[in-house]
Automatic annotation (TrEMBL):
GO terms for biological process: tRNA modification. This is tRNA dimethylallyltransferase. Keywords: ATP-binding, Magnesium, Nucleotide-binding, Transferase, tRNA processing. The keyword Transferase applies.
Length: 306
């Protein structure tokens, strides 16, 4: 049987992954699977920079706006769903595109998740008490001490991620970062990872400008419409949590927007740290030319398995 190929487009937030994924999908006449965990949820299109209607029309996308913000959706469920979708697509295509900056979600698809223990009830109870009494800062402090490597990568504003990592560390007496680094499954497809890179200052400037554009497009109104769901995990994310503080009267609007920019830059920094550790990513420079794209196609063809 002919070996199938998955092209995974990675990189920090705001770098232009969507455009490159669409260009590749059009070139290979194929479809796109998103591994951006924030874009799975409907009603968050502006704040998560989901592909526009025009972009979605250029190439078929999967896992964009397929869930309600009220749905619980784990990384394990995503791995199962994404692999099932890949099997379907590989019936029709030799090559499929994967795109997104959610590092662990990409890892789940291309390598597989580890056989980590289920949540321990006593640990969870203890951690929830800490969270309620001392806040998320205390959980951040605990994880940073137990596993500084994972703390440097995790979305530390997401208390569920912190709770999960600490629980696993307490159960196993091993760092969470070490346990998730071990690949469990070999995949029956070939993966080619493509990244986009830019100077740090240029990336941060793009992020700042993108936040301003989001505000112009109606992010404030979008967040207002989601305020009743602010306690849900899907909304505990950059772009929304800051505006909820504005709605609550804790911050003024200018400060909330500046915090969105700052937290988006911090997230990009964590993504860059993660991708820098990989030695299998072929990079294009931001603002790549047609000649650069042609060179990328040449690279991909050299690394595709027949």
């Amino acid at each position: 049987m002919k070996k199938k190929n998955l092209i995974s487009v990675v990189g920090p937030t705001g770098i232009g992954k969507t455009r490159l994924a669409i260009d590749l999908a059009k070139y290979f006449n194929t479809e796109i699977i998103s591994c951006d965990s924030r874009q799975f949820f409907r009603g968050m299109e502006i704040g998560t920079a989901a592909p526009s209607a025009e972009e979605l029309a250029e190439a078929t996308h999967h896992f964009i706006g397929n869930l309600s913000v009220e749905d619980y959706y784990s990384i394990g469920q995503y791995e199962e769903d994404a692999l099932k979708k890949l099997d379907e697509l590989f019936e029709k295509y030799d090559t499929v595109i994967l795109v997104g900056g959610s590092m662990m979600y990409e890892k789940a698809v291309i390598e597989g998740l580890n056989d980590l223990p289920e949540a321990d009830e006593n640990n969870q109870k203890k951690l929830h008490e800490i969270f309620e009494k001392e806040g998320i800062e205390k959980l951040q402090e605990i994880l940073k001490e137990l596993d500084p490597e994972y703390f440097a990568l995790v979305d530390f504003h997401n208390h569920r991620r912190l709770l999960r990592a600490i629980d696993v560390i307490w159960q196993t007496n091993k760092k969470y970062s070490e346990q998730i680094a071990v690949s469990q499954d070999s995949r029956n497809f070939n993966t080619i990872r493509i990244g986009i890179e830019a100077a740090r200052e240029e990336l941060y400037d793009r992020i700042n400008r993108r936040v301003d554009m989001m505000m112009e497009k109606g992010l404030l109104e979008e967040a207002k419409g989601l305020e009743k769901f602010k306690h849900l995990t899907a909304l505990n994310t950059v772009g929304y949590s800051e505006l909820f503080k504005y709605f609550d009267g804790e911050w003024d609007l200018d400060f909330a927007v500046s915090e969105i920019k700052k937290n988006s830059r911090r997230y990009a920094k964590r993504q860059l740290t993660w991708y820098r550790k990989a030695d299998d990513i072929h990079y294009l420079q931001l603002g790549y030319s047609q000649e650069d794209f042609d060179g990328l196609i040449e690279y991909i063809n050299e690394h595709t398995l027949e």
